[in-house]
Amino acid sequence: MADVAIRKPALAGRLGGSATVRLTTAPTASRVALRAPAESLSALSSALGLTLPDAPKTSGRAGARSALWIGPDEWLVIDEASADLMATLSGVGTLHSTTDVSHRNLAIIVSGPGAEATLSAGCPQDLSLSSFPVGAASRTVFGKAEIVLFRTEEDTFRVECWRSFSDYVFGLLNEAAEDVGH
């Protein structure tokens, strides 16, 4: 039997933060970048088992699956139960495009009473609860890296970033968390 190489996930085992912020890597998830015109949303929503949002900074959620509005015809669909999203969407007989980005992205969870301040250290968006409520999602930047930011709870954010930028994003988040914790 041949030796099998096991890939170690980026940021595996990394923890960070401070007295007011906790940084953890999110468990592995399935992700697809979905593009579709408005007339396809009903069929795609039905296949996904959730309503695809149609307004900026919004999301839809059902169980372990979330759909984040990224642009007028673009969503990031995340399934934390690692369901085969490509198979789920392949049989939908309506105009759409899906790309599996499961191995391109990873997520960092930023939680605690200092989470908003930590993210504000590198993100130009107003992340106050009134401007970026629970369920809000947006493509933005953190430092010099593009991220997708999703507020899952009042004091918890999911930071989706490309795997190749993950060490940079985690390092900046950790630095900001330490500053917020003092």
What does this structure look like?
The protein is an alpha+beta fold and 182 residues long. The protein contains 4 helices and 11 strands, in the order E-E-E-H-E-E-E-H-E-E-H-E-E-E-H. Strand 5 (65-71) and strand 6 (74-79) form a beta hairpin. 35% of the residues are buried.
Offer a few descriptive terms.
globular; 182 residues; alpha+beta; single chain
| Gyration radius from CA atoms, angstroms | 17 Å
List how many beta strands DSSP finds.
Answer: 11
**Percent range for helical residues?**
10-25%
Label the structural class: alpha+beta
What sequence of helices (H) and strands (E) makes up the elements?
EEEHEEEHEEHEEEH
Distance between the termini: 54 Å
Can you give the mean pLDDT? 94
Strand order, largest beta sheet: 1-2-8-11-10-9
How would you characterize the largest beta sheet? 6 strands, antiparallel
Strand % is: 25-35%
Low-confidence segments, given as residue ranges, are: none
* Shape field: globular
| Tally of alpha and pi helices | 4
